[in-house]
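Hi Q.,

Before the meeting this afternoon, I wanted you to have the uridine-diphosphate-N-acetylglucosamine prediction in hand. No need to reply - just skim if you have a minute. The sequence and ligand are here:
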Amino acid sequence: MQSYFKVEGGNKLTGSIEINGAKNSILALLIASSMTNQVVTIEDVQNIKDVRSLIKKIKKLNSTIIINDNSFRKTIILDNKNLKYRDLFMDEISEFRASYYFIGAMIGRYKKCNLLLPGGCFLGPRPIDLHLKGFEELGCTIIEKEENGKTKLFIDTKDGLHGSDIFLDFPSVGATINIMLAATLAEGTTTIENAAKEPEIIDVATMLTSMGAIIKGAGTNVITISGVKKLNGCFHQTIPDRIEAGTYIMYGAVLGENLIINNIIPEHLEGLISKLTKMGVNLKIGDDYIKIINRKKEFKGVPITTGVYPSFPTDLQQVYVTLLTQCYGTTNVTETIFPDRFRHCEYLNEMGANIKVNSGEYLSKATVDGFSNLVGKDVMATDLRAGAALIFAGLIADGTTTIKNINHVLRGYDNIVEKLTLVGAKIELCEGE
Ligand code: UD1
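Predicted structure with the ligand bound:
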C-alpha cells in the first residue's frame, strides 16, 4: 500500500503555522552528537522521516536516545557514552544523503569510517568529491569499492587527522559541514576557504562550539578550526527551518489571509522576501514571524536565479515556480545548483500551467507563462520540494489533486497535513493504490 495526499483546492489559509527546527541542520547535529561520550540535548527537532530513520541508525551504534515529544516540538537527548564503532553498510544508510556526515563525525572519534555511499532526493548526479578531497587533505586514505551495484567507501586515518588549508572548488554546504566536523578533532588548525555560508553551517558550528570546539568564521567564506582532543556534551537550540517557512509563506502569498508564519528568523529568508515584495505580496515582517495580510492580488512575476546563500535558495525554487503560475507575465527561473530540479514542471503543466523547461548540464531554465487556471489531477512527487510545489498547486486548483510518491514529502516536512489543516486547507494523507 502506498500513501498519497488528497488535496481539495480553493480554500483560504488563515491562522498561524509554527515552524520547526531546520531539517538540514538537525541531520548534521544528530550525527555530530556521536563525536562525544557525554550527553547532548537538541531542542526543536522535526518529526520527519529522515530524522526518525537517522535516530534508529544512531541507536544501532549503541547510543541511548530519549525523545521528549511536546506536540509540535521535540527535544532529543542523546547519551553516547556506550557508542561503538560499526561499519555503516546497512541499506538504510544510503537512503538519505546527509548520512555522509557520519564520515566527518566518526573519522575524528574512531579514526575510520566505512559506509555505503549516500543517496537522497533524485536531483541529478550529486557527487561528494569535495568532501572526499577535504578528508584526504586532513590525512585520510579513501578506497572505493563497487559491490552488487552499490558503492562502499573505506576511509581510514592511521596517523590521525591533521589540520590543513582546504580550498573548496564550490561552496558546498555538505562539504563545508563535513570537513568542519572532522577538523574539530584533528591535530592543529584547518582553514576552509570558499566555504558555504548557509545559516545551517552557523548552527552546526554553534553546537560544536558549545561542545568545546574552537571555530571562527562560520557564516563567512573562510572558516578556521583549531582542533581539540575531545568534545563535551551540550544543550543546543536548533535554528528554525527557513525552507519550511519559505514554503508556507509562498502558499500564503496566493491563499493566505492574516496567515502568520511563526518561529522564524526573517533575515534567513531575505532572498525570498525581496522577490515577494517586488511581486507586490502584502507582508508584515516581525522579529520572529511573517504575516501575510491578504490573499491573492495581481502579482507581477519576478525572475529568480538560484544560488548559494544569501541568493535565492534552490530548495525554494520549485514552490516558487508554482507561485509564478499565478502571477502575470512571462517569468524566467534559472537553476544553477541542481540542473535536474525542474521535474515538477511536467506535472504542473498537466494541471494547466504553461511552463517550458530548457535543461542543461550545469544550468537549466524554466519559463513560466502566468495566470494559469490550475485544475486537480493525479500527479507524482519526484522529490521532496517537488512534492511541496504540487501540494501548493493542489491547494490553488479547482477540484481534487492526488499526489503519489509522497515519501519524499514526509521525509522533509514536519506534520504538514496537520499544520495545513489547522489553517483551513483541505488535505488528507490516504493509504491505498
Ligand atoms: C544541501 C542541502 C540541500 C540543498 C543544498 C544546496 C542538506 C542535507 N541538504 O545539500 O537541501 O538543496 O545544500 O543549498 O543540507 N557538489 C559537488 N561535489 C561535492 C558536493 C557538492 O559537485 O562534493 C555540487 C552538487 O552536485 C551541487 C552543488 O555542488 O550541484 C551544491 O551541493 P551542496 O551545497 O553540497 O548541497 P548538499 O550539501 O548536497
